[in-house]
Specification:
Distance between the termini: 18 Å
CATH class: Alpha Beta
Strand content: 15-25%
Structural class: alpha/beta
Order of helices and strands: HEHHEEEEHHH
Number of helices: 6
Largest sheet: 5 strands, mixed
CATH superfamily: Mannitol-specific EII, Chain A
Number of strands: 5
Number of domains: 1
Radius of gyration: 14 Å
CATH topology: Mannitol-specific EII, Chain A
Helix content: 40-55%
Shape: globular
Length: 150
């Protein structure tokens, strides 16, 4: 999996404004929309919210990975947001989430989607990487951390 192709400056915010799970998901989808990555905002929102209804994508250690699959996309897209104070995302450990990595892909390409989610969740189990992500001063610095360039 080539993270460089998935992580783009225009799809990252270091200061997400949302205060609820719903607001954060909507803000990340809007980030993808403004960046020109989606043509059907409603379909992407529905895919992510439908998945979230099945079981929360709030993991642990401050990480949440909302995701979904839709016929409205041909390739996987990723949005990343940071929230310094954290937000209740119904995480497995009951603690607030402050790193949000949202992935949306085509229903026809499940393997890439699963591979990316696995790689990201594995990487973010390391406290040094989470700390470097949260301390990123630019979207490019965040990308470099997640790509392993920092």
């Amino acid at each position: 999996m080539n993270f460089a192709e998935c992580l783009q400056n225009s799809c990252i915010t270091l200061d997400i404004k949302g205060e609820t799970k719903s607001e954060i998901i909507t803000e990340l989808v809007d980030l993808l929309d403004v960046a020109g990555k989606i043509t059907d905002r409603a379909a992407v929102l529905k895919a992510v919210f439908d998945r979230e209804e099945q079981v929360s994508t709030g993991l642990q250690l401050g990480v949440a990975m909302p995701h979904g699959k839709t016929v409205a996309l041909r390739e996987m897209i990723v949005a990343v947001g940071l929230k310094k104070g954290g937000v209740d995302f119904d995480s497995l450990d009951g603690k607030p989430s402050n790193i949000f990595i949202m992935t949306v892909s085509s229903v026809l390409n499940a393997n890439e989607h699963i591979e990316f989610l696995g790689a990201m969740s594995s990487m973010l189990t390391h406290s040094a990487i989470r700390k470097a992500v949260l301390n990123s001063q630019s979207s490019q610095e965040l990308i470099d951390v997640l790509k392993g360039d920092e």
